[in-house]
Amino acid sequence: MPERTDFAPYEQKFKALADQKRLQIMFELTQRGNTCVCDLEDILGMQQSKLSYHLKILLDAGLILRETRGTWSYYELNHEEVNNLLSPQLCCLFRK
Fold first, then answer.
1. What's the per-residue H, E or C state across the chain?
2. Where does this protein have coiled-coil stretches (predicted)?
3. Model's pTM, two decimal places?
4. Residues 66 and 73 sit within 8 Å (Cβ to Cβ)
């Protein structure tokens, strides 16, 4: 019998990715690098409350990182975690 694979660690990450706004946030962070939340509001044309909601989901899933400087939060893509999701190891689980 083949060894069972635990997919639980991937569930939260894929749920976080299953939203167009969150994908747009990740794309902008990929393009811009470490970005202030105040700039993300302007770039994405989102109200602070909605943006905070989406950022929290991405943070909880480990897909982005946050650094606080004074009163502002700066966000960047967690490249290591994103690369793990796109890794051959995960992709090969679904190939014959």
1. CCCCCCCHHHHHHHHHHCCHHHHHHHHHHHHHCCEEHHHHHHHHCCCHHHHHHHHHHHHHCCCEEEEEECCEEEEEECHHHHHHHCCHHHHHCCCC
2. none
3. 0.85
4. yes
pLDDT digits (tens, 9 = 90+) for 41-81: 999 999 999 999 999 999 999 999 999 999 999 999 999 99
More confident site: 95 or 82: 82
Q: Which CATH number fits domain 18-92: 2.40.50.100, 3.30.360.10, 3.40.47.10, 1.10.10.10?
A: 1.10.10.10
Whether the pLDDT of residue 25 is over 60: the answer is: yes
